[in-house]
Recover the amino acids of this structure.
């Protein structure tokens, strides 16, 4: 990875973390804990706190353990990003979004002892877990990495771009 491309991916990660932190600060400053504001028919802002990771998993872990675990995962993701092949721009951008989202959440955990969540999709009878922009960046980034792998797999199976069957 060149210094220029590394800088671009670092900027993506920092922009994602910065945007996440900015929105979280707006939520904390302008909404009471457990306050809900309807944004669209099935979308609300709902200010809550998450002491675990995805879907409150590991909520019994100490703050220090959660920061160390998240830091270890971030190092592993960074290692994967650096090892990505030169042409895997989609995967590298995905890794940058994952790292940016993880950074946004680890800042909360290290400074507050919990993660600020605020996005809620719901109906009258069902609701999805409350999450935040950092979580969305992590999910979109992971989807980008998977999509890159699918595209690379497809290209390996059909390097010439033609159907390899003898009747083609």
């Amino acid at each position: 990875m060149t210094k220029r491309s590394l800088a671009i991916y670092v900027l993506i990660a920092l922009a994602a973390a910065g945007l996440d932190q900015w929105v979280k600060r707006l939520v904390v400053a302008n909404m009471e804990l457990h306050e809900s504001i309807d944004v669209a028919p099935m979308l609300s802002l709902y200010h809550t706190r998450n002491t675990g990771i995805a879907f409150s998993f590991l909520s019994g872990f100490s703050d220090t353990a959660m920061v160390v675990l998240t830091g270890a995962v971030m190092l592993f993701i960074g290692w994967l990003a650096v090892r990505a092949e030169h042409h895997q721009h989609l995967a590298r951008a995905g890794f940058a979004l994952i790292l940016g989202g993880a950074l946004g959440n680890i800042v909360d955990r290290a400074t507050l002892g919990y993660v600020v969540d605020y996005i809620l999709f719901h109906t009258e009878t069902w609701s999805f877990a409350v999450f935040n922009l950092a979580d969305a960046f992590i999910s979109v980034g992971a989807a980008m990495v998977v999509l890159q792998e699918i595209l690379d797999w497809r290209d390996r199976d059909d390097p010439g771009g033609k159907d390899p069957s003898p009747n083609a």
